[in-house]
Amino acid sequence: MNTVQLPDALKSALVFFAMKATDVEEVLAIENDAFPFPWTRGNFLDSLASAYPAWVLRDADGRLTGYFLLMSAVDELHILNITVRPDWQGKGIGRLLLNKVMALAREAKMQSILLEVRPSNVHALAVYLHAGFVQIGMRKNYYPNGTEKREDAIVMRLPL
Fold it and tell me: Quick one: which H or E segment has residue 100?
């Protein structure tokens, strides 16, 4: 995988915070920038109201660089949304977010992490495969894609 990695000094300047409702407007701006079919304000607020684990990653100037939302189901952690601000993509932020997810899963004594990803999202697929996720299934017609035909979702799991 050919990506530019963050220098250690920059990595150390990035800080995780629990996502709050006051973060949602900024999260939405990135979500709308990053995806043709983004989550809605309601999706984020409902997830926060349900007390789903949700985190944001900010740089030294407080700018949002990425975020994720999770759902616990018995002994498995499900990644609902993991997003890197488009101008920070390809710099190791996705891996940093994923490392935080994996640390949280281990702290919570989860047995595995589950996610769905579009087959067309080749960069995310490469990150997940590199992290050790394996494909366990396919959800047919899972994602909207702007036409009458919907895009499938690759279901992946990382045993912990």
Answer: helix 93-107
